[in-house]
Design brief:
Blueprint: H1 2-17, H2 23-59, H3 76-83, H4 85-118, E1 119-120, H5 124-136, H6 139-150, H7 155-158, H8 164-170, H9 173-197, H10 202-209, H11 214-243, H12 251-254, H13 260-269, H14 275-302, E2 318-319, H15 324-350, H16 367-373, H17 378-409, H18 413-428, H19 431-444, H20 459-482, H21 487-495, H22 500-511, H23 513-528, H24 532-536, H25 545-554, H26 558-586
Parallel strand pairs: 1-2
Helix pairs in contact: 2-14, 2-18, 2-19, 3-14, 4-9, 4-11, 5-9, 5-15, 6-15, 9-11, 10-11, 11-14, 13-14, 15-26, 16-26, 17-20, 17-23, 17-26, 18-20, 20-23, 21-22, 23-26, 25-26
Membrane topology: Multi-pass membrane protein
Pfam family, one: BPD_transp_1
Domain ABC transmembrane type-1: 91-296, 383-579
Length: 600
Amino acid sequence: MTVLHHEGAAAFARGSNSRGLSPNGLLAFIGRLCGPMAIYAVFFLLIGLPLALVLIQSVMPRLFDVQAGSTAFSLEPLAHAFASPRILQSILNSLELAATVAVTTTALGGAFAVLVQRCNVPLRGVIAVTPWLVFLTPSYLKALAWVLLMSSGGYLAQLGILPQAWSDAFFGLEGLVFVHTLGLFPLASFIIASALAGLGSELEDAARLYGSSPLRIWLRINGPLLAPAIALSIIATFAEVLSDFGLASTIARTSNFGVLTYGIYSATSDYPVDFASAGAQALILLALVLLVVLADRMLRRRADPRLISGRARPAHRYELGLWRWPATIAALAVVFLALVLPLLAVAIRALSQTLGQGLDRSNFTLVNVQTALSLGTAANQGLLRSLGYAGLTAIIASGIALLLSARLDRSNSLMRTIAIGLSLGAVAIPGIVLGFGYILVWNRLPGFRDWPFPHYGDGSLLVTGYVAAALPYCLVVILSAIGQLAPSLTDAARLQGAGAMRRLLAITLPLVFLSVVTAFLLTFIRTVFELPMSQMLIPLSGPAAPTLILKLFSHDQDGLACAIALMAMAVAGGGAAAAWMLVRRFMPKRGSNTRGDNVK
């Protein structure tokens, strides 16, 4: 690849020094430009333009005013936002919630990571897989489940194990911290477990030979080495809570605990639409998230210990003796609260007539599930709509990511860095802000407003928004796989006269097929439950399942809402698992790696 790259650069240099380009040289030059331009165009249309309009709108509040549009610069919306007691309180609430959850989540995730990585406990395999299942469950479903459990007439109160004071406290900061902590502890666990895996045992062994106790080893050696990972966990969780819309639209809304993300949604969903207020709040939210990202960058630059060396030995696991049982019970309690109990509450409510009659045998029914599965009902249409949108989104996002990855792998390092940077940056953009940007582009911007496809109010725009939200994840997954391929494979095909598309389909795709399937399935599951885009870009043909679930829940039809959620989880999760097993079962195993070395 290096040789070809130099040849290309030399050819380009020769071309630029020559007095004129031949027709063939001009076509080749245009061809070389088309790839990078296509990459820029995709990112610009899907992410850059919507985000830019959100920022511009916040300082040009009358830009999209239908009656008296103006490009006058004004900081009035920002001044109004900071002067408004409601918005100012939502900013403070968001910061307080994010800071508190960052600490509690890191503490729980860190303890979970240490227990799974460094301790021999019974049922370790079951405990270790739980964070992945919790992480894939959308936050608003966990929030709705805990509302069913913790409300004054909920399941725990009916069982007589919920004091009224706990129920009252749940609908406020305490409840939000509790549900966020149980939902986000996997993120902290993943970050700290990765750092733990790189520690090795050399330093611990040396300290142990010197007579140090395990507590002293953790306080004086492992603790300082894990400090960057702990700080990164706090920063990542802080940003995640700031951007969350699932709990903001459920427990926080019910508790009148205003946060920024729901404020943006309220400003764009009320009539008349207050674009200026939405833009100002979006700018404040983006600034807060940007500060967190910058803090992360600075932290990595100043403290990035290299823990893995060629002589590193795996760390020993601690034998806890009699303490292994209390530790196991504590871990299983987290598993029960974070995964089993919420899913059980959703399943019971989906199979019951009313919440008030609780677990009485006469209360159980299949009506809600039958309604969700009956063709022609609004519930079934919403479910099918979500599954269809998710399948279409997964195909488009995976396909675009494959094309972009193949192109980026042959691009120079600057282009690759820019594309990866844009992808990772897009992950940090709150979905509610991106959705607001799509409204500005496709509903207000001349030239885009009248496009037949995608069109505002149509399912095509919702799918486009889903693709924008999923593309960064797909690109990272597929690009990492393509980056492992030896350039000689495609170079040999090119010398044989194979075109770019044939090389992609006949050589690259079979070798990275598993990664493409992984990106497809992750996108499919994620899109079925994608809430911010679904809520901001509701098609005129009807809402997708996440919007319908929230609407039914807020109109006291929580049984049908839970039935839709249960069926969506069963179809999306079961279908993805079956597809994954089929692919793994029938995919031919390579006897050698892509660089031609034998695999031992």
